[in-house]
Write a structure and sequence with these properties.
The protein is 89% helix and 0% strand. By secondary structure, it is mainly α.
Length: 333
């Protein structure tokens, strides 16, 4: 701002002062233009260019200003695009974090329900195990009773065989009694004939003969009755033997079925134990999944908070970047 006093000496001094005055004016003009450009840039207007026709070595300053403005335009445009992408990504991340949080909550709920169901299954398996154990005990007791019944049936069959043998002996004895009665009857008839021949002397003997005949008749009737009773007894025994055989066969079949039930009970107990072991392992896996779900839930909450903070930072960055007016925006307007 120093004023140059021009000399009028019409020599080199006058030329020097005139040239110095022009130089000072040009420098002030350039400085004013540079200050205006920098003030506009500081105010956020990047759609600015030097308005002065720079000459000589000052052309380098103009080119440097244009380069700086162009670089700032590119940088701010990049910041703005990055801010937009960051805002979009933060919104998407926030939405995904919300979905992850909901999914984690749902996973925790499903895990709790699964644990509850597994507990119910365990309770049912305990009941099944107890029932299977009781069934096996009852089956073993039934097998024991069946073996005892088989022993009694064998004894009964043997007793019936003995009764049948004794009945055969009784039949033989009754037959012998019947034969003796027949012969006694014949002897009585012969004695009656001889008594009638004896006349008066044989009357007393006739009475004895009649008694013998009645006794022979009663003996024959008793032998016949005994034979009939033995026959009936033999038929009853035969029916009993057949029923005993059928009962023994039924008991044998029941014993086999009982053995099969026992084997099935054992298999059921083994299967239940296998399921109990599998449920224990499943319970451990569910606990691990529950821990992971809890961590996911915590991470989802942290991610949601972080995405919210990131969205705020992106918004603030966008606000700061929007303060600048770039050349492309000015052309679009």
């Amino acid at each position: 701002h120093t004023e140059v006093i021009q000399a009028s000496s019409r020599d080199e001094l006058e030329l020097l002062t005139r040239t110095l005055d022009d130089t000072v004016r040009s420098v002030n003009h350039y400085i004013s233009d540079i200050r205006q450009v920098l003030n506009q840039v500081a105010g956020g207007n990047l759609n600015i260019e030097p308005q002065v026709d720079y000459k000589g070595d000052f052309i380098l300053i103009r080119d440097s200003l244009n380069t700086i403005i162009r670089s700032l335009n590119d940088t701010i445009s990049g910041f703005r695009a990055a801010a937009l992408r960051l805002t979009s990504m933060s919104e998407e991340l926030n939405e995904q974090s919300g979905q992850l949080h909901e999914a984690s909550v749902e996973q925790n709920r499903a895990t709790e329900e699964l644990v509850h169901e597994v507990s119910h299954v365990k309770e049912h398996l305990v009941n099944v195990t107890e029932s299977s154990t009781q069934t096996r005990c009852k089956t073993e007791e039934m097998e024991k009773r069946i073996h005892e019944a088989n022993g009694h049936m064998s004894s009964l069959t043997e007793a019936m065989d003995n009764i049948s043998t004794n009945a055969n002996e009784i039949t033989k004895i009754a037959k012998a009694i019947e034969d003796i009665a027949f012969q006694t009857n014949i002897l009585a008839i012969n004695a009656s004939v001889e008594a009638s021949r004896a006349g008066t002397a044989g009357k007393g003997f006739v009475v004895v003969v009649n008694e013998v005949k009645q006794l022979a008749s009663k003996s024959a009737e008793a032998a016949q009755s005994a034979t009939e009773m033995v026959g009936n007894t033999r038929a009853i025994i035969q029916t009993g033997v057949e029923l005993t055989a059928d009962t023994a066969e039924s008991l044998h079949m029941i014993s086999e079925i009982s053995s099969q039930i026992s084997e099935i009970s054992d298999q059921l107990v083994d299967a239940v134990k296998g399921q109990e072991n599998a449920l224990v392992i499943m319970d451990e896996r569910i606990e691990s999944i529950s821990d992971i779900a809890d961590k996911n839930l915590q991470n989802a909450g942290g991610t949601k908070n972080s995405s919210g903070l990131l969205a705020k930072e992106a918004e603030q960055l966008k606000v700061q970047v929007d303060k600048f007016v770039c050349k492309q925006e000015a052309k679009g307007r």
